Amino acid sequence: MAVAGPTGPVMGREEVDRALERLGTEHEAIESSLLALQDHSGRRLLEGAELTGVTKERWVETDAAITLLWAHFEAYTETIGAARELRAKRRWPTQTELTRLTELLRGDGVTVTGAATPDAARSLTGPARLTERLSLKKVLKRMNGWYDQAMETVAAADSVWSALPARIDLLAAETRRVRSLAQSVGVRPGAHPAGDELESLIEELAELRARTVSDPLAFWRAAPSPGRPDTERYDQAGRRLEEIRREVEAVLHVRDDAEHRLLRLRDVLSRADRTLTEARSARVEVLSKILASDVPAVSGPAAALHEQLAAAEEFWRGAQWHRLSPLLDGLEERADEELLRARDSLTAVTAPLAVRAELRGRLDAYRAKVARLGMAEDPLLIERYDQARRLLWSAPCDLAAADRTVQRYQQAVAEIGAQRPSKPQDRRGPV
Fold it and tell me: Highest taxon of the source (predicted)?
């Protein structure tokens, strides 16, 4: 029957040996983990950086946890060393030695000094504790908690530092390249909204980078596990730069295409002016040759469009592409509308001449028909033809009267033709 001690049954020799072997393996694993933590790039950076915000608060707590972790590991190491030393005295330990080994390995055999005692283990009202005795199991549990806390902090900071500053630097370099391109086409702060946006973006990226360096944990999303760097502000900046780039590229396109567009505008406005000039001349002719009071007036050239074209050419000569772009867009549309208006005006003004020409053509066609039917010597037809011809070839021409006269001539041709016997040999149809 096993002898009982303060911590329960006293361990036997073989139990002690197996426990020491297991603790030795655990000790090596703990030591490797602590050394890896000590050499972790995130811990070294946190230790040497000028921290702010959330990271500064977390690092104060984590640094204290690492200090406690090492202090407890030293006590843990000393306890295991003392047990190994006691076990090595003889092959067959005495009962007293086995009791002591049981106390070291299972009982509160680890002594931690008061400076290494965590706040949670200190009494609020009692006297300060100079030392604290714990079991190896409790020490290991505490070390695991502090290690997890420390690794979470240093790994998160290292992940943010590895991911964000370099990417921000690349985005800032691209932003500066776009700014250089923008300035080459006149997109500058105060002169174009995209120029103001670029300056604002450069300042924002500088502030964002400084904060990711001094407060990396502010850019860490712990959930969902295992966590990841928060790139939302970086992504927003990237989208802003893409919008600005498209604006600058549009201005560049204007620069490359401006000369061709200006030449086309000059041609369209010139054609509109010539058409209006032709319409005014036609109106004078209509008023002199046609008896009409409803001939529409013809406006002069669009002075406003010519002024805008002159402004556009000035912007082109001054390489003010950002101002030329919106001006050309509206000017091209209005110039096309002006040419259509001029053509419509010419059509409206010359309409009476077109009516007179149609009546003349109809009269000549029916005269040819009369000759073909052998009615050219008919007195009534000759009289009606002469009346219509006098009206159509006189100035000013009364179109309404001429139209009525031509219709009377047509009617007479139809009536006289119906009274005449048909001639089988004439197989040609009417006009």
Answer: Bacteria
